[in-house]
Amino acid sequence: MAMSTGAATGQPLVGAPTPPAYSFTTPMPPGVLAPDSIDTRFGNLRLLGGVPDQASTDRIYDNLDFQRAVQAYLLALPVVNQIANRAATLTVGPVNGTVPIWEQMVDSRTVELTANDNTPYSWFWIDLRNGPLVLEAPPKVLGTVNDIWYHWNGDIGFTGPDHGKGGKYLFLPPGYKGQVRAGYHVIRPGSLSVWVVWRSFVVDGTPAPGVDLVKKTTKLYPLGKTAADAHMNFVDMSTKPFNMVGPGDVHFWDMLNQAVQTEPTAAIDPTTLGFWASVGIEKGKPFAPDDRMKKILTEAAAVGDATARTLFYRNREKEALFFDNRNWKRPFIGGYKFEWQPGVANLTGSAMYFFAATGVTPAMDTQIVGEGSTYPWTAADADNNPLDGGKSYKLHLPPHVPVKTFWSVIVYDAQTRSMLQTDNRFPSVGSQNKAVQTNADGSVDVYFGPTAPAGHESNWVQTIPGKSWFTILRLYGPLEPWFKKQWRPDNIVPQP
Prior knowledge:
Blueprint: E1 37-40, E2 43-48, E3 51-52, H1 54-89, E4 98-101, E5 110-111, E6 121-127, E7 133-137, E8 142-147, E9 152-157, E10 167-171, E11 185-187, E12 193-199, H2 208-217, E13 219-222, E14 233-236, E15 242-243, H3 251-262, H4 270-278, H5 291-313, E16 339-341, E17 344-345, H6 347-356, E18 373-374, E19 377-378, E20 387-388, E21 393-397, E22 403-413, E23 428-430, E24 444-449, E25 460-462, E26 468-478, H7 480-483, E27 493-494
Parallel strand pairs: 4-14, 5-15, 10-11, 24-25
Antiparallel strand pairs: 1-2, 2-3, 6-12, 7-10, 7-13, 8-9, 8-12, 16-17, 18-26, 19-26, 20-26, 21-24, 21-27, 22-23, 22-26
Helix pairs in contact: 1-3, 1-4, 1-5, 1-6, 5-6
């Protein structure tokens, strides 16, 4: 069927009269009248003179509720991601003072969406219910601020207004109308719960100087107080098993409802709120689905999770590919705002990203040479097959990886989207590791598989038979050859 647009889009009243013919009967153009019977993917529908019978009505409403529930699920991936993050973080200690910090980097015992093991994380939540807060941020960090809805609110550190020198950030609650004094970098989140995360850096092979600086200079206190009133509790998480990944099953809906009931929703567009309301999640109202709706929501969560996995692992958008002859894909389709064009949401890009990742900032999508970072990733080999933990593979990185700072290759479990848990504490190969072997021409070969290839143990990441995996190639401070596509990582090639 060909569809066209143009000025002549109206349908003239031509053709045979609609039977039975009466004095004022006119012809009806095709498509105006519904057939008496329609075969659909969810059964046969009977429309008696254009009105669905009761069985068809029930079938149509079940299908409509299911469709809306799946879309509501995909639209809620960002906030449920954040709710799970927040709930886990608060088990470490209360907001506005507790700072989990991975002093020896994140290892595979931390179950978190595509965290990296290259730098120490500081990762904490603040709450603005009692009014504005002042955060004195440390120097020499790279960080960002996201609200509960996963909207980017600002950067801290090298890509923020303090430019890595440290500074005072003033966090204002949504709707705050009070006077703002000079001397602060102001952040206005769209929620009362706000996530702050940054990384410090390894210095001469050790994370200690950066960690010590964070612990010495980070302060959080109410506006009108001073740093002397801050009570900071830094908790080293480096060796502790810890899960921040939320459920993809029916419990997903309760977490979404928690956010809608406890946070301002003015930052959310009406259509998204409408999808959530259509499944019974609406501010100020109890979430109490009946048995029919519980069944639909249970199935919709399973289908929603499977859909998100498809959008990530089997993404079909050409815009997702960095190169026309490689399997490496972009983390952001439509930029960090996930848009086809300004004001037009890229729903695939958003669902794909928030299924597998945490943290939104333009610094992760920068096109400035030597600044920010980039994250090409792949879940497929050179033949476009899923990566199999029982097989051996090689990734060839051509000479002179174009980075100002460092690069790394980290392996993740396709189920949890977290670091693959094996005999390796850190399932990665990277330029920070002086033991990594470089070929004579400056290229690097990275190996993956259940057993290490002889002589290449330092360039090998262990995988597990029966487990699918994917990998992210992180480039920190990417250089001109990357942006001009003069340097391209090879596809991952199966080995004999």
